[in-house]
Amino acid sequence: MTTPPARTRRFDIRRLYTAAALIPAVYAIIAHLAPWALTLLLIAVGSIALLELYRLGFQSRLNRLLVGVGMATFVLVLARSHLSFSLAEILIAAALVLAVALPFLSGPIDRRWKDALIILFGVFYVGFTLSTVVSTRSLPAGEFLVLFLAVVTWASDTGAYYAGTLWGKHLLLPSVSPKKTVEGVLGGLALAVGSALLAQRWFASELSQSDSLILGMLLTGAGLLGDLFESGIKRRTGVKDSGGILPGHGGMLDRLDSLLFTAPTFYYYVAYVRGLSPPL
Predict the structure, then answer these.
(1) How far apart (Å, rounded) are the C-alpha atoms in residues 225 and 236?
(2) Total structural domains within the chain
(3) How open is the CA angle 259-260-261, to the nearest 5 degrees?
(4) Residue 255's closest CA among 66, 42, 5, 71?
(5) For residues 53 and 119, what is the distance between their CA atoms, to the nearest angstrom?
(6) What's the mean pLDDT when you consider all of the chain?
(7) Nearest-5° angle of CA 34, CA 268, CA 43?
(8) Is residue 196 predicted with pLDDT exceeding 70?
(9) 5, 60, 91, 131: most buried by Cβ count inside 10 Å?
């Protein structure tokens, strides 16, 4: 294990400004507006993240036709609970459209198939995972469950960032994420579990204390995997951040990487392990 370079011990104050501007608006949408408002928010931020992912995947050969198919499929996947489509129907339709479009694309046939797979991967990686937030909102007391998910995910990310910045000495997986430390992971776990227990007592009475303890640990692990997964994508494509839309945070995909793994973990726990009735 090695000690991270000194520059990682500097806080980026822009993170605080960005959080202060966004958190109240996100809270209002989750807790006080109708479910479709959250869906629209997820479509907006998810579209930006998906476009960032496609730019990473395609680099200089970004194909507007393929990206258009991917973006349209993404919107349908997130909005399907408000429409009369199933996930299988949407994905089959998208695959058929891509298959029809392949002969009209330029380049070797193997690259065309690879490009089509990048499109479908993006729909699953960003679209399906975010759609589980919409599914959570559809559960009984769904607004409080989504708020619980957001609070614990944010707490894990925040605890990891500040603990790693202040005390990080032992690198976790430098070949994938050169700044992530064991101390940061432990700080994220501590703040996530503490926030989960407080949130359960404050507004998430549908969950028990044991649920909160388990979810605090589960979401920390899932968020860590999400962060490392996105870091691996960026390493493979040779970029530091997925974009620059959020000061102090990088791109939208950088901001959502943990949520893309915590959201399905949380949904399947509360819907099937905890036994809250999922929507049909």
Answers:
(1) 16
(2) 1
(3) 85
(4) 42
(5) 10
(6) 87
(7) 40
(8) yes
(9) 131
